[in-house]
Amino acid sequence: DQQVKQNSPSLSVQEGRISILNCDYTNSMFDYFLWYKKYPAEGPTFLISISSIKDKNEDGRFTVFLNKSAKHLSLHIVPSQPGDSAVYFCAVRHFQGAQKLVFGQGTRLTINP
Amino acid sequence: GAGVSQSPRYKVAKRGQDVALRCDPISGHVSLFWYQQALGQGPEFLTYFQNEAQLDKSGLPSDRFFAERPEGSVSTLKIQRTQQEDSAVYLCASSDLGLGFQPQHFGDGTRLSIL
Questions:
Q1: Is 2.60.40.10 the CATH classification of the domain at B5-97+106-114?
Q2: Residue B25 contacts A, CB cutoff 8 Å
Q3: A4-112 in CATH: which number?
Q4: What is the pLDDT of residues B72-109, one digit of tens each?
């Protein structure tokens, strides 16, 4: 059973516009939600996280929104830049002591000039 | 500062051979994780260490997979009698164990190809 789903395998956005990446989860027992960015042949790089007790967290051009009733997480990037082109993974952590992360399948974001 | 270092970056082995993959975590990081990433998928959890103690190995797919971290720093993931389905990128991550949430920081992975 897939606990975390990223339903869009790819997304193309024009430079300067807003990029919105989405993620759905099935379990209410997660305490932290994260976004990672991955370039080819490199490991995932941590971008931003949000606690389950919040609904928004902002860091520069990146904002993560959490809608617990809908079990939905989104990442907004504004303005989008060419260097943002990468694969983005959402990940969740179970609140009860387990340290492991459960990842979605990823969304490939392409920023067009 | 130095990040998580993994070696080798690429490993090719024949089916049935044993392989060993190494991970050097960020200095001082107590927690260490191994993940397996198949092509086109997100990373999947294999095992977790806190210092030298292996606290969770629920993701190891079979008894052919074994991980150790004897001195609480460097870790080795060993796969015995490799099979073609073991072909994947193996990622190591480490995190601090401070107050509050500490994100996991990943190495660049070892790409394992089983022929």
A1: yes
A2: no
A3: 2.60.40.10
A4: 999 999 999 999 999 999 999 999 977 778 899 999 99
